């Protein structure tokens, strides 16, 4: 019986070697050749085999930790098998699973079998149990997708954003989609859970960290606040190499405010680095910086222990991000976006300037930008209950007109500055027309401890009955918080061609004015090409909140054809263009007289009345 079993094992071993030797000659270009002396197939794994993993729990030292091979689990998910192991080292028994160990290579009987990547039983598992992604699956990553072409639009699937460009631009809805928290796929208390990678944020206040955690939960990232930043110079100067078991960092934001994702290297083949054992964003070609890192310590937690660490040096770029691993190339350089935030606060004795570099990624850049702005504005504490924020933003674009705007927000916290800036950047980076390379993002922000909100107290007309060609005087009294009332006057001339009848007159602040425009001329907020997108964004962002508007609505004349306004078109031709059988979208062109005044306050309401044009 012993000889029969021994012969069977020998036969299976020889068959495995033959299969993988055969695969050498069918290996896709660029994929590492299978070396059965170096790598172990999952088909060779048996419970009870001697095993260990390599990882770093402090500094840059790679240590060996013994494992028990418990089982091979098939079809955990479609196309996913993994090896179930348990760490027997006292440090892991004390801490349980440790976030940041994703990618730690697992060796069975001296050969690389895979990478620690999953936690059976969810984040609350007490025992250091791990699901191991087979190394043969990791080595295939990057072969099915071409490298990211910087000249074409990078599109995402699954976890990405979905903006509807057929509707008028709604920056608030876009920002809500970016910042809304969603549960990470596969995360549960009893099932398979991806071992999270800690995202270590330095310079972020508690409120910014909470919002960041909500935004990134969908990607299986664990936000760790208040630790990180630049490493000491003597440590950064060390010649630390990316090697199996070494810390692997993905810097999302560098400079005065930092955000960096921490995992572990699984394998290095020539200049290619494999890590994590699971996805990061998970949609194929990427262009993100790849760096060496150090681990400060491991924080043990009843929920989930995690590594604290920081970046040492950027040494390459990630090029592929798929379900089984991330892959980078040493020496490659990822594109970064310069970010400058200038903050002037009422309770600060100096103007603070934050200089950063943000990763160029249509998902991560808006999220990182939101956190950076919040961190800079709230650097000396939360905003007072009564506050006003004045801001200027410039988004530079390679080969196109920049998107620049200034505005004021009163009593709304960071909501409006975040909406204007994050929504704009997200639309530019995730548009369906053309790949946009943002070359710079600059903020100039001033915070004052005052309430700038105003209400319309009264509106008086010089006469509610006029004739064509006559003038109307509109007197508006505005009431501000803890301030004297102010009076503003508008002079409107009724057009000479105005026909007898009733005409609506409206006085409003910027919110009412924007609502009017969205209803009257919605096509101005719809982009049909790249230049139209920039124009529409500038139109939306150009509505200043510290102004008072007076509008006299006139009967429509002419047509608006696919966004082109033809107000002087003869009525007969306008009727032809508005025929329902025509494919081009035509609508009557709305007309109105408009005057506006600077008020230094944000008027939040509107008043409507009517005048009568007599014969």
Please give the count of helices.
Answer: 11
Low-pLDDT windows of residues: 1-26, 150-159, 183-190
Percent of sequence in beta strands? 35-45%
Shape designation: elongated
- Relative helix content: 10-25%
| Rg estimate, integer Å | 31 Å
Domains (count): 3
Structure, explained:
The chain is an alpha+beta fold and 615 residues long. The protein has 3 domains: 1-147 and 164-333, no CATH class; 337-448, Ubiquitin-like (UB roll), CATH 3.10.20; 453-614, no CATH class. 19% of the residues lie in helices and 41% in strands. The chain is built from 11 helices and 33 strands. The strands form 5 sheets. A 6-stranded antiparallel beta barrel has the order 1-2-3-7-6-5. Strands 11-12-13-16-15-14 form a 6-stranded antiparallel beta barrel. A hairpin with a 2-residue loop joins strand 2 and strand 3 (80-87). Residues 1-26, 150-159 and 183-190 have low confidence and may be disordered.
List keywords for this structure.
615 residues; alpha+beta; Ubiquitin-like (UB roll); 3 domains; 6-stranded antiparallel barrel; 33 strands; 19% helix; 41% strand; elongated; disordered N terminus
Layout: helices, strands, pairs:
Blueprint: H1 2-24, E1 50-55, E2 63-77, E3 80-87, H2 90-95, E4 98-99, E5 105-108, E6 111-120, E7 129-134, H3 135-138, H4 171-179, E8 192-194, E9 197-202, H5 206-216, E10 221-225, H6 233-236, E11 247-255, E12 258-269, E13 272-275, E14 284-299, E15 305-322, E16 325-330, E17 336-345, E18 352-359, H7 364-377, E19 388-397, E20 403-410, H8 415-429, E21 438-448, E22 453-461, E23 465-467, E24 471-480, E25 486-493, E26 501-508, H9 510-520, H10 530-541, E27 547-554, E28 559-561, E29 564-566, H11 571-577, E30 586-588, E31 591-598, E32 602-603, E33 606-614
Parallel strand pairs: 4-15, 9-10, 17-21, 22-32, 23-33
Antiparallel strand pairs: 1-2, 1-5, 2-3, 3-7, 5-6, 6-7, 6-8, 9-12, 11-12, 11-14, 11-18, 12-13, 13-16, 14-15, 15-16, 17-18, 19-20, 19-21, 22-24, 24-25, 26-27, 26-33, 27-31, 28-29, 28-30
């Amino acid at each position: 019986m012993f000889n029969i079993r021994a012969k069977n094992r020998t036969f299976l071993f020889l068959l495995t070697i033959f299969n993988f030797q055969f695969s050498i000659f069918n290996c896709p270009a660029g994929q590492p050749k299978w070396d059965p002396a170096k790598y172990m197939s999952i088909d060779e794994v048996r419970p009870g085999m001697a095993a260990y993993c390599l990882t770093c729990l402090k500094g840059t030292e790679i240590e060996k930790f013994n494992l028990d091979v418990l089982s091979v689990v098939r079809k955990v998910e479609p196309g996913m098998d993994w090896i179930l192991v348990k760490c027997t080292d006292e440090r892991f028994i004390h801490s349980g699973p440790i976030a940041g160990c994703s990618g730690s290579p697992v060796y069975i009987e001296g050969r690389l079998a895979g990478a620690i990547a999953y936690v059976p039983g969810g984040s609350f598992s007490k025992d250091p149990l791990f699901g191991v992604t087979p190394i043969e699956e990791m080595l295939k990553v990057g072969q099915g997708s071409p490298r990211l072409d910087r000249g074409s639009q990078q599109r995402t699937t699954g976890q990405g954003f979905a903006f509807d460009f057929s509707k008028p631009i709604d920056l608030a809805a876009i920002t809500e989609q970016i910042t809304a928290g969603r549960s990470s796929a596969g995360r549960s208390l009893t099932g398979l859970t991806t071992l999270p990678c800690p995202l270590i944020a330095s310079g972020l206040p508690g409120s910014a960290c909470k919002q960041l955690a909500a935004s990134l939960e969908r990607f299986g990232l664990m936000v760790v606040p208040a630790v990180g930043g630049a490493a000491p110079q003597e440590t950064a100067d060390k010649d630390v190499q990316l090697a199996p078991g070494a810390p692997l960092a993905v810097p999302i934001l560098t400079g005065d405010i930092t955000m960096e994702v921490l995992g572990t290297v699984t394998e290095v083949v020539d200049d290619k680095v494999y890590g994590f054992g699971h996805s990061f964003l998970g949609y194929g070609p990427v262009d993100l910086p790849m760096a060496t890192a150090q681990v400060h310590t491991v924080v043990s937690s009843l929920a989930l222990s995690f590594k604290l660490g920081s970046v040492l040096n950027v040494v390459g770029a990630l090029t592929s991000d798929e379900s089984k691993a991330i892959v980078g190339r040493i020496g490659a350089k990822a594109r970064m976006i310069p970010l400058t935030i200038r903050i002037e606060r009422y309770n600060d004795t100096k103007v603070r300037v934050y200089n950063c570099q943000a990763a160029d990624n249509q998902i991560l850049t808006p999220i990182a930008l939101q956190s950076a702005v919040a961190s800079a504005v709230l650097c000396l504490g939360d905003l007072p209950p009564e506050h006003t924020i004045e801001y200027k933003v410039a988004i530079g674009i390679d080969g196109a007109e920049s998107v620049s705007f200034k505005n004021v927000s009163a009593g709304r916290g960071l909501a409006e500055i975040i909406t204007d800036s994050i929504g704009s950047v997200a639309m530019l980076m995730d548009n369906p027309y053309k790949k946009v390379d943002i070359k710079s993002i600059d903020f100039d922000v001033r915070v004052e401890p005052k309430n700038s909100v105003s209400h319309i107290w009264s509106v008086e007309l010089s006469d509610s009955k006029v004739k064509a060609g006559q003038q109307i005087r509109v007197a508006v009294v505005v009431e501000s918080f803890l301030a004297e009332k102010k009076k503003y006057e508008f002079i409107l001339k009724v057009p000479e061609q105005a026909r007898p009848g009733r005409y609506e007159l409206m006085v409003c602040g910027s919110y009412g004015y924007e609502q009017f425009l969205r209803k009257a001329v919605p096509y101005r907020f719809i982009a049909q090409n790249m230049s139209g997108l920039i124009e529409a964004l500038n139109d939306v962002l150009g509505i200043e909140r510290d102004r008072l508007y007076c509008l006299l609505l006139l009967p429509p004349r002419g047509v608006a054809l696919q966004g082109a306004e033809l107000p002087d078109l003869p009525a007969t031709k306008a009727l032809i263009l508005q025929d329902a059988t025509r494919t081009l979208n035509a609508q009557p062109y709305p007309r109105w007289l408009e005057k506006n005044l600077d008020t230094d306050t944000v008027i939040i309401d509107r008043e409507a009345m009517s005048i009568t044009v007599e014969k």
